[in-house]
Design brief:
Elements (H helix, E strand, L loop, with lengths): L1 H4 L2 H21 L6 H38 L5 H32 L6 H13 L11 H6 L6 H5 L5 H15 L4 H26 L2 H16 L4 H29 L4 H7 L1 H10 L2 H14 L5 H14 L2 H20 L7 H17 L6 H12 L14 H26 L6 H6 L1
């Protein structure tokens, strides 16, 4: 039992159970709306807000250093550039497809569209009175201008300008590769060391995740009770459906179009998918993914050795899909409480940020939490509102990691195919 409880995901699960039980006890004894119950809610809210402040504090340095390091890894020259360009193009296109599926389904099913009273209870008075100030932005030029802020220092201190900061980090990372060797090596070591530093700080903060989850979830359960269950379950179903459509339909069609048998590939990747589901970590699953791709699909090591490690850190289609759905879902609850619905251009901005932040924070546990907080800041949504979705996050984290890993493997076999290598040669021989 002690060994089980030493794992973070079981600690988070226990924190969720305790939060629900605490709220249930208060509501059973009709204490939720008393001074006694409100005192508990205040303390829990304070704990959750303290955790979110710690997390928000590290978001900007972590994302910037991660994106710079990822961009530096693209390299320059020869086959590396060709394979690298194909890899990045595949990851970007499939990421956009995943996000499009997510946006379509979350807008059609609209899981956050609830009765105004229920929305008010879920959000609470403090959150409901803080509208999503940028949610209905329809200024195309304004959105585009945010790509290139005039003052990068000011952008770093303004959550609504984080998009420009990420673009700046991408440009800087790419151009480091064009510096003279001694300067380029210095820059690589500089940014890699800072990235490692901020990852260590984030990992320390993440040790407090169970406490933060309790502090974020308990007040929602105390305020809303059963009213919070239905929209959260609807959100859960929305994300699962979106993940399924992307994995089983979108990716299968891409493989099929290039003569790669989708069912054969999925069976070959089954050990990696099981490992991803149990660990919720693309990095931890990487050795199994490499073995499946190289031994079953016969992808050359020089292809798999480049695409899969890169994919484990930058190809997070499942995570980006989830981040996008989560932010739109929370904005729908705000709209139900009387706020403005999120407009088309802000949703497109959320898509782009989900794609970029899923790259920038992919190497840490529960990375999507960091990304969602960042994106919510751009939409003007208080970070504490993320507590709404935490009841389902553990299972969804396992599922979206499977989608991430499957996307990495699809990229490897697709790139090997375009490089004229025979993948699944027994299929070729049979034909």
């Amino acid at each position: 039992m002690r060994k089980i409880l030493s794992r973070l995901h079981w600690q988070v699960a226990l924190a969720l159970i305790l939060a629900v039980l605490t709220a249930a006890i208060l509501r059973i004894f009709d204490a939720a709306d008393t001074e006694f119950g409100r005192s508990f809610e205040y303390v829990f809210t304070f704990v959750g807000k303290l955790f979110m402040n710690l997390l928000s504090m590290i978001v900007v340095p972590l994302v910037v250093t991660s994106v710079v390091c990822g961009s530096m890894g693209l390299g320059r020259g020869g086959q590396l550039v060709r394979v690298g360009a194909k890899t990045i193009a595949f990851y970007a296109i499939t990421g956009i497809l995943a996000l499009s599926v997510s946006l379509l389904i979350v807008n059609v099913l609209c899981p956050g569209c609830v009765e105004p009273d229920a929305a008010g209870k879920i959000l609470g008075d403090a959150l409901a009175q803080t509208p999503a100030v940028n949610a209905n932005s329809a200024d195309v030029a304004g959105v585009l201008l945010k790509f290139f802020p005039p003052n990068i220092i000011a952008a770093a201190s303004d959550n609504t300008q984080i998009l420009g900061l990420i673009i700046f980090a991408v440009i800087m990372g790419i151009f480091i590769n064009f510096l003279p060797p001694k300067y380029a090596e210095f820059q690589r070591k500089f940014w890699a060391s800072f990235n490692s530093l901020f990852e260590h700080i984030t990992n320390m903060i993440m040790r407090l995740l169970p406490i933060g989850v309790f502090g974020l979830t308990a007040p929602v359960c105390i305020r809303a009770g059963a009213d919070a269950i239905e929209p959260v379950l609807a959100f859960f179903a929305t994300v699962v459906l979106s993940l399924g459509v992307h994995m089983f339909i979108t990716m299968s069609l891409i493989l099929k179009a290039w003569g790669i048998p989708p069912l054969k590939h999925m069976r070959a990747m089954f050990p990696a998918l099981l490992t991803a589901f149990s660990t919720s970590s693309s990095i931890a699953t990487l050795p199994v993914t490499l073995e499946c791709v190289e031994n079953s699909a016969r992808v050359p090591k020089k292809i798999s050795g480049f695409t899969l490690p890169l994919g484990a850190t930058v190809n997070m289609n499942g995570s980006a899909l989830y981040e996008c759905a989560a932010v739109v879902f929370i904005s729908q609850i705000y709209a139900s409480a009387g706020g403005e619905p999120m407009g088309l251009f802000m949703q497109i901005t959320v898509m782009l940020l989900a794609l970029l932040t899923s790259i920038g924070v992919a190497g840490i546990p529960s990375a999507s939490l960091v990304a969602i907080v960042l994106i919510m800041g751009v939409a003007g949504i208080p970070a504490e509102a993320i507590g709404i979705i935490w009841m389902t996050d553990r299972i969804l984290d396992m599922l979206r990691t499977c989608v991430n890993i499957y996307g990495d493997s699809c990229a490897a076999v697709w790139i090997a195919k375009t490089e004229k290598y025979d993948v699944y040669p027994e299929i070729q021989d049979a034909q």
